[in-house]
Design a protein that fits this description.
Length: 495
């Protein structure tokens, strides 16, 4: 259905003249309900199955999963689309390069080899007859939509790459292969000698997961994607070819494309021949899923290529999750302090009535502003900055804890008084842990859940709205439900 509508009036067969491929299919007002509130569609590429999963696959998937969990935390309805791409020809044939090759002389006189400008790999010259999509027809409109951020490409450097490419003018692309070469696949409508090129039917995956293949499909559910999460090597397909195909079929465009960099290993390019390909499964088995996710989010900067190292995974885990977050929780839950969490809701009331004490002001203001800051960073897929900001808050809370010396306050405290200084210090410390754990949960969901279990936070009070300062203590904590004190199972140190 999509293919037939797309190719009508937007394709021609070469070397033959333009061939119309059937009647145009229209669905009146099909997408008139675009902009459904509280619906978010996050999509990864559909990965090739020519080898075992590698760090690039995992990185795309983790970024998409973090976004999905973030929007679900905000009580949106979220669809996450992922999968694999399986087809009939080897992957080395998934490309038509045309003018994107260089002619390089060899050591033999008057002989040359052809090299892909993008990958540096050798290419073979073949000649065949197929249909071409009028990509050039959409050059100017794509340029304007990307420049104006109607299609938002991040980071900015990737956006500029695409704009530069469009500024030079794009050529039409082949969208079919002779059936004699590729019998497995979707046939071209009204031409049984041709099969749709794999990249075209692969991209339609983002439509079919929304039910577009069903004749009864009359309105969108989640389409178009809110986020496409892709590696920088396939940005052109998602930022130019895919939007042009949608324009050709009168369908709405993706809203945002996040193109991340690649990963090196120990500062060297990964290579199977060198035997230095990262094994994500081994790292997960060693450090756990959450620690691995934390590392990818913390050390992964979408604007650059990033370095993968198991030493770095261990370093982030031990210095930030264990020594920073875990140690702070352990200090706060010391039985020697015995913070009376049953009074924390009353502490919130006292602060509301009497104002914030000077020694609490910096931490108080930070906790008030933190959710909105972190929300913006999540929406920008800037997960590294999410973790930097949350670690800064934990540093501030640790300093607040140490400056107030609660171990000395216990000498003259009144556990029944909500205005007691020890209780106030305990509230700010554990409120920091509660808020940070909720905001961390899209990145380290299992560990965050365990921390909130320790604080006796009910499952129905773990959504984003409960990251608001003072919102989490009114209903459930009393003297009969003391805070758990053994957290060694949450963050065991890795040696």
């Amino acid at each position: 259905m999509f293919i037939r509508k797309l190719l009508t009036n937007n394709s021609y067969r070469v070397p033959l003249k333009h061939a119309s491929l059937g009647h145009q299919i229209t669905r009146k007002n099909l997408f008139s309900s675009l902009g459904n509130k509280n619906k978010v569609f996050v999509a990864t590429p559909i990965f090739y199955v020519n080898a075992a999963p590698h760090i690039g696959h995992v990185y795309s998937s983790v970024l998409a999963d973090i976004l999905t969990r973030f929007y679900a935390l905000q009580e949106n309805s979220v669809k996450l689309s992922t999968g694999t791409d399986e087809h009939g020809l080897k992957v080395r044939h998934s490309s038509f390069l045309d003018n994107e090759i260089s002619k390089i002389p060899t050591s033999e006189p008057n002989t040359y080899e052809y090299i892909s400008n993008e990958t540096g790999s050798k290419v073979e010259w073949t000649q065949e007859e197929n249909y071409k999509f009028r990509l050039s027809k959409f050059n100017d409109i794509l340029f304007q939509k990307i420049k104006s951020d109607e299609i938002l490409i991040s980071p900015e450097s990737r956006k500029n790459e695409i704009l530069s490419w469009l500024k030079n003018g794009i050529q039409d692309i082949s969208v079919s292969r002779p059936k004699s070469r590729l019998s497995w696949g979707i046939p071209v409508p009204n031409d049984d000698t041709q099969t749709i090129y794999v990249w075209i039917d692969a991209l339609t995956n983002y439509l079919t997961v929304d039910g577009f293949y069903d004749p009864s499909y009359t309105s969108p559910n989640f389409f178009p994607p809110t986020y496409h999460i892709v590696g920088k090597d396939i940005l052109k397909f998602h930022a130019v070819y895919w939007p042009a195909l949608l324009l050709g079929a009168d369908l709405p465009l993706p809203r945002r494309i996040v193109a991340h960099g690649h990963w090196t290993i120990d500062d060297s390019k990964m290579s199977k021949s060198k035997g230095n390909v990262a094994d994500p499964i081994a790292a997960i088995n060693e450090f756990g899923v959450d620690a691995f996710r934390y590392f990818l989010a913390r050390d992964g900067d979408i604007g650059f290529d990033n370095n993968y190292s198991e030493k770095n995974i261990q370093h982030r885990y031990n210095t930030e999750l264990v020594a920073h977050l875990g140690n702070f929780i352990s200090r706060c839950l010391s039985s020697k302090l015995g913070f009376n969490s049953a009074l924390f809701a009353n502490v919130v009331d006292q602060i509301s009535k009497n104002g914030v004490q000077n020694q609490d002001l910096d931490l108080h203001n930070n906790l008030l502003e933190l959710p909105s800051i972190i929300e913006g960073l999540y929406k920008d897929a800037n997960f590294s900055k999410v973790l930097v900001s949350l670690n800064q808050t934990l540093s501030l809370a640790n300093k607040h804890f140490s400056n107030n010396e609660p171990w000395n306050l216990t000498k003259n405290s009144d556990p029944s008084n909500p205005s007691d200084r020890l209780t106030t210090v305990g509230f700010y410390s554990l409120e920091t842990i509660r808020i940070v754990s909720i905001l961390l949960s899209p990145i380290i969901p299992t560990k965050s859940s365990q921390i909130l279990d320790t604080l006796n936070t009910p499952n129905d009070q773990r959504s984003w709205k409960f990251s608001k300062f003072g919102s989490g203590w009114a209903k459930f904590l009393d003297s009969s439900s003391p805070l758990k004190q053994n957290i060694s199972h949450i963050f065991p140190r890795k040696l």
